[in-house]
Write a structure and sequence with these properties.
Elements (H helix, E strand, L loop, with lengths): L1 H35 L2 E7 L2 E3 L2 E4 L3 E7 L8 E2 L16 E6 L3 E6 L7 E6 L1
Parallel strand pairs: 1-4, 3-8
Antiparallel strand pairs: 1-2, 4-6, 5-7, 7-8
Bound molecules: copper (II) ion.
The site of copper (II) ion has 5 residues, from loops.
């Protein structure tokens, strides 16, 4: 009887230590990964950006994807330009990371009536 209690006690020590180490380690890495690697998508379809206005936290990478069967561009209207894509053919993507708060209007230089903006908070 005494012996089995002793063995059970020994077995519990590494179990508790292990849970503590893995518990905090995992939680920390998931939190920081979400903060550093958040991405948001804007789809281009039927001559429009969707969503037209995108609100994101600082540090977000925004990816535009051309779902239209017509080439488009994503060009910042700020001076100097905050970002500028090449001409995107169907299913091509362009990404920009926003590290400062502000409002970033942009348009398609091929079809200037196509406009959108990214609001970074
Ligand atoms: Cu366009």
């Amino acid at each position: 009887m005494r012996r089995s209690v002793f063995i059970a006690g020994l077995a519990a020590v590494p179990l508790v230590l292990g849970m503590g180490v893995f518990g905090t380690g995992r939680k920390g890495s998931i939190t920081s990964a979400q903060e550093k690697m958040s991405t948001m998508e804007v789809k281009i379809d039927n001559f429009s950006f969707g969503p037209v206005t995108l609100k994101v936290p600082v540090g977000t990478t925004v990816t535009w994807t051309n779902r239209d069967d017509i080439p488009h561009t994503i060009v910042s209207t700020d001076d100097p330009k905050a970002f500028k894509s090449k001409v995107l053919d169907t299913d091509e993507k362009f990404s920009s990371t926003f590290s400062k708060p502000g409002t970033y209007p942009y348009f398609c230089s091929i079809h200037p009536k196509m406009t959108g903006k990214v609001i970074v908070q």
